[in-house]
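Consider the tokenized backbone below.
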């Protein structure tokens, strides 16, 4: 009807529901609202949280989570086998609503600013001033090295 074979779509939905059920079974009830979703691969389950605190809580109580998740898996082993989803590794990460997958890398690139050796050293304390002058010398050496490598590569 819509170009999707329902026979192929249903196992993916069942896999997602089993993965989410496994995540909820292992976590405390107060953390359920922080589950943004799950990613289900053949032998890996990734729980997606929408809050850093939930991830910290998950990592702190991972052994308890695994014990509860094993019980859920034993109860539903046939359903897991039917969709060939046997999670041997369970991970978690944080995703935010408005965040695109590669946005985090782009933000890091924007925040990485290069400095130059022509900054103003306005430190009054002689030891602090000497520290900044040592940094200036290091930056000058790096600038000269980068200029030399550019000149030799051209």
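A designed sequence for it:
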């Amino acid at each position: 009807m819509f170009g999707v074979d329902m026979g192929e779509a249903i196992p993916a939905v069942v896999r997602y529901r089993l993965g989410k059920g496994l995540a909820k079974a292992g976590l405390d009830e107060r953390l359920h609202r922080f589950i943004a979703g799950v990613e289900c691969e053949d032998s890996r389950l990734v729980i997606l949280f929408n809050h850093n605190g939930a991830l910290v809580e998950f990592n702190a109580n991972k052994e308890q989570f695994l014990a509860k998740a094993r019980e859920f898996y034993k109860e539903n082993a046939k359903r897991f086998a039917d969709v060939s989803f046997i999670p041997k590794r369970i991970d978690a990460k944080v995703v935010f609503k408005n965040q695109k997958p590669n946005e985090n890398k782009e933000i890091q690139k924007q925040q990485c600013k290069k400095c130059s050796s022509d900054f103003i050293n306005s430190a009054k304390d002689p030891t602090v001033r000497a520290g900044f002058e040592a940094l200036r010398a290091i930056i000058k050496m790096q600038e000269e090295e980068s200029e030399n490598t550019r000149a030799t590569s051209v």
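The chain has six helices and three strands.
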